């Protein structure tokens, strides 16, 4: 891989260390992917052959005069900071119009900055300084602070099983598609592979159409769960964000034939997210790890 990409990844690690010092509490900053930063370090040290997954994380920013926080989702391309980061803000305090306006203005602000300079702290400061004005507009439009309601919709969760998930471009497509559709869940890479997505039913079904065509043969949707809702559906989510899971217990991920996911670790992960019942549905055996 070119030296420029390695230099960019080194800068990304420096910025991540700075952000972790700014947000030491786990509830304020969440990195997607198990041991992601250590994998990037191993790659830079020459101990990890494949290009590591993109650094992807959430920062939770306090909204003035409100108890809740806004979620700033950050995805760093391998060539950031020479390339713009992917940023997206969401908050239950904002209606759809203000969500769109806020994200457009944040994108415009990032575009105005010099490329080659680290800018995530700038984005966080901009969001901290500006989000309250968008919240106030939402309150005014929706009746002076009345609780925001969403239209009646269907909350949906899909459990997808694949023989394996290895290819970097496929993993990126899964992550990008889930984030674009505001879906939470996970993608377990390796052999076998498992994907869970949850959110609006139409979005889940669009995700399923997008990732499985045109030629992904060894994949099936094993189980679905649905419930009609009239309020915000975030309380129904089992997962806070969409993340890539990489369990390293069995072999080197860079060697496909030598890598098998750790079922015990996966069962523990499901149990932490109140989903251990799905283990038998996916694998046909009861989890007793």
Structural class by secondary-structure content: alpha+beta
Order of strands, main sheet, comes to: 8-5-7-6-9
Radius of gyration: 20 Å
Helix content: 25-40%
Largest sheet at a glance?
5 strands, mixed
Number of separate strands:
9
What is the multimeric organization of the chains shown? single chain
Head-to-tail CA distance between termini: 40 Å
SSE order: HEHEEEHHEHEEHEEHH
CATH architecture of the largest domain: Roll
Number of domains: 2
The mean pLDDT is 84
Ranges with pLDDT <50 over ≥5 residues? 144-150, 252-258
Overall 3D geometry? Answer: globular
CATH superfamily of the largest domain: Ubiquitin Conjugating Enzyme
| CATH T-level topology of the largest domain | Ubiquitin Conjugating Enzyme
What does this structure look like?
- This protein is an alpha+beta fold and 289 residues long.
- The protein folds into 2 domains: 3-141, Ubiquitin Conjugating Enzyme, CATH 3.10.110.10; 153-283, Alpha-Beta Plaits (2-Layer Sandwich), CATH 3.30.70.100.
- It is globular, with a radius of gyration of 20 Å.
- The N and C termini lie far apart (40 Å).
- It has helices at residues 3-22, 36-44, 96-112, 120-141, 168-180, 201-212, 263-272, 278-283, and strands at residues 29-31, 55-62, 69-76, 86-90, 153-162, 184-188, 193-200, 219-229, 242-245.
- Mean pLDDT is 84; it is low at 144-150 and 252-258.
- Strands 8-5-7-6-9 form a 5-stranded mixed beta sheet. Strands 1-2-3-4 form a 4-stranded antiparallel beta sheet.
- A hairpin with a 4-residue loop joins strand 6 (184-188) and strand 7.
